[in-house]
Amino acid sequence: MLYFLLSVFFTVTLYLIMRAYPRYQVNSFHAVVFNYYSCVLTGLILTPDLDAFSHVSWHSEGTLLTLALGSMFVTAFMLIGLSAQKVSVTAASLAGNMSLVIPVIFGLFVFKNNNKDFTAVNYAGLILALAALALGAIQKKEKTSTAQNGTTSPANWLLILPALTFLASGTNNTLINYLSVKYYLPGQTTVFMIIACIGAVIIGSTLLLYKLIFNGETIQVRSVVGGMILGIPNFLSLYFLLLALASFGNSAAYVFPIYNILTMLVSAFAAWLIYKEQLSKLNKLGLVLAVVAIILISYQELGL
């Protein structure tokens, strides 16, 4: 249970750190790039046997696809940060956790690797999850007002950020599930994640170099520090989740629903406590529906 709680803690910490970036004038993209340097270092420190990398074939199809997965890591992380900063921590958390619908659908209809028969209750949960996402992203009217100069406030299009976060996170998780099962042994999960983070470092650094050369951007120390700090809970959230899975007999269908429920609830409470984020009645309804949706999707595994 300790691993379980630590995973939730570090996941929530991710949202809260990215939510604080605007206050400290941290460039989100720069921080995300350096975050993956920190992820790789953290992963290497936690890898008991570094000789495992000597057996990696860096030119194999599996390794190259895993490195390419890094582009999705960067995309999903940027969208999570923008959703947390521009909309709310709760909306970002809700979108990220509700994205479990996408890998469930792919596992059910595409990969056909589901280990249970889906019932009408499970399908109702999938539909309810989408409704919860929409309600959780709705913002108060004053945030979508027109600016004094007559231009439309950016808040008018902010509702798309949680939706994009939902799609990117779901696609990311689907690819992680597919690639890790197809190309890696069960004991190589940490190696798989480190390779994916190396891919994120390569892709993110290339984009950052382009911005520095052609857009005249400069790297500030605060962005480097912010990214290096972020990388620690980023990697640890997955690290402890994997340990939690092992402690519960690798029952992903049991662990992930509870993990997602706790993450959403703790994120909403922490955002209210630290950033004074206020939820509308629709937001609160979306949060409740999200919990109900996850329960419906996995009620068999929860023993209900």
Layout of helices and strands:
Layout: H1 2-20, H2 28-46, H3 61-68, H4 70-86, H5 89-98, H6 101-109, H7 120-137, H8 160-183, H9 189-214, H10 221-247, H11 252-275, H12 281-297
Helix pairs in contact: 1-4, 1-10, 1-11, 2-4, 2-9, 2-10, 3-8, 3-9, 4-5, 4-8, 4-9, 5-7, 5-8, 5-11, 5-12, 6-8, 7-12, 11-12
- What helical percentage do the residues reach? over 70%
SSE succession: HHHHHHHHHHHH
Q: Proportion of β residues?
A: under 5%
How many beta-strand runs?
A: 0
Distance between the termini: 20 Å
Tally of DSSP helical segments: 12
Morphology: globular
Give the rounded overall mean pLDDT: 83
Model regions low in confidence, pLDDT < 50 over at least 5 residues: 142-154
How does the helix and strand content classify structurally? mainly alpha
Largest sheet: none
Structure overview:
This protein has helices at residues 2-20, 28-46, 61-68, 70-86, 89-98, 101-109, 120-137, 160-183, 189-214, 221-247, 252-275, 281-297. With 304 residues, it is an all-alpha fold. The longest helix is centred in the C-terminal third of the chain and has 27 residues, at 221-247.
How do you describe this structure in short?
Helices cover 72% and strands 0% of the residues.
What are the key terms here?
304 residues; mainly alpha; 12 helices
